[in-house]
Amino acid sequence: MEKSFKRILCQLAVALCAVAFIGLTGIKAHAADYANDGALKVSGVGLASTKTGQKVILRGVSTHGINWDVAYPYISTEAYATLKNNYNVDAIRLAMYTTEYFGYCDKAGAGESQSEVQRVLKERIDTGVKAATANNMYVIIDWHILNDQNPNKYKSQAKKFFDEISKKYAGYDNVLYEICNEPNGGTSWSDITKYAKEIIPVIRANSPNSIIIVGTPTWSQDVDVAADNPLPYDNVMYTLHFYSATHKDSYRDKLKKAIDKGLPIMVTEYGLSPASGDGNLDKAEAKKWLDMLDANGISYFAWSLSNKSETSALLKSGTSKKSGWSTSDLSEAGKWVFAQYKSRSGSTGSQTDSDLTMPVKVKGLKLKKIKGKKIKVTFDAVEGASGYQIRYSDNKNFKKAKNVTSFTNKVTLKKLKKKKSCYVKVRAYKTSGNVRKYGKYSGVKVIKIK
Ligand code: IDC
Fold it and tell me: What pTM value is reported for the model?
C-alpha cells in the first residue's frame, strides 16, 4: 500500500516536471516586421526589436548569387511583396559572390571591366535593399566568399566595399551585414578573427549598432569553435549553415554547444538538399533543424530564390514568373519551406529583453578537496539566477575546459586528473525558454588534485 502510494507520488512528480519543462522550452519570438520592430539588436542567442524589446525571429530567403542570371531577375519590390504577403518571408539575404561568375573581386572571364562588374553588383544590392525596405523586410548584404576560401584574400576590397556600403545604408536600420559567407580550405577561427577585427570597425564607424554576421570555419559549420573565442563587439552574430540531406545530428550538436555557451547565432543559409545544392531532399531532418532553431529564437534563411535546375532552388525550374508565384510555380523545396514559414509564423512575442538581464558577477568562489579525484565548489548564491555554469580545466587558460551546470551554489566536480591543477570559474545565468543570459565570470581559483 505504502509502496504504491510512493510510486504514485513519484509519477506525479515526473509529470509535473515534464509540464514545467514544456513550459520552459520554446522561446516566444515573433516574426519580424521592420515597421513594428525597427532596428534589431542581439538578445541572448537570437534577436530582439529595439522598439518593443520583444524577441523576434527572421524567417528569410537568400538569393542565389546576385551575380547570376538565375538570381538577379528576382530582386524586385514585386517579388519581395509576394514573399512577404503570400509566403510569410520577413527577410532577404543578398548573396554577392566575391569570385566565380562575375565575382566582385574576380570577374572570372566576364567581358566587362572589374569596376563595371562592381558597379552593376552594387546597383543590384541597391535595388534589393530598397525592395526589402518597401515591404518592411530586413535585408542582409552578404560578402559571399566561397572559392576564395579565406576572407583575408580580398580583405582590402572587403574593407572598401563595407565602408562604402555601410555609409550608404547608415540610415537603413533594416540592413544587416554578413562579412564572410563560408570560410573553408583550412581557414581557422583565428584567421577569421583577424579579418573580422579589421572589417567590423569599418562598418561600426558608419553604422554603430547594426547587426554584423561573421562566418565560421569549415563552410560556416564550426559555431562551437567560435563560441570558445567570440569577438569583442556588441551586436555580432555567428553563422551556421546546414543542408539537411548532409548535415544532421552531429552538426546540431555543434549548434547546441554554441547555444549552451550563449553564442548569438544566425543561419543565413540552409537547404533541404545535400550540401552540393542538388540531390534528394531530406524534409524530416530539415524539420528537426527548424524546430530547434525556433525553440531557441534563432533566425534562418533558405537557399535560394532561383529557378535554377537544382533541388535547393525554391522556384520550379520551368517557371518564368518573376513574382506573384502560386504554389504550382514552386519547387518541392519551395513548397515545403513556405508551408513551414506559414505554420511557424504565428507565435506572438511576449518575451521582453529586460526579462533576461543577468549582469551579476559571481563572488565568494571556494574550492575544497575531497577524497577520490573530487573537489567541492561553493560560491555565493546570486539572487534571481536560474542556475550556474561551472567551467574547469587543468590549464590556466581554460583550454579544453569542461562545463557543468548546477541549480545550486554547491557542486562536486568528479573524475579530475591526478597530480594536476584544477582551475575553476563560475558564472550565473538566467533562463528564458531555452536561452541563457550569462552574468560575468567569477575570479579563477585553483587547487591541486592529489
Ligand atoms: C551553390 C549554388 C550553385 C552554384 C554554386 C557555385 O546552389 O548553383 O553553382 O553555389 O559555387 C553553400 C554556398 C552556396 C552554394 C550552396 C549549394 O554558400 O554558394 O550555392 N551551398 O552548394 N554552402 C553550402 C551549400
Answer: 0.75
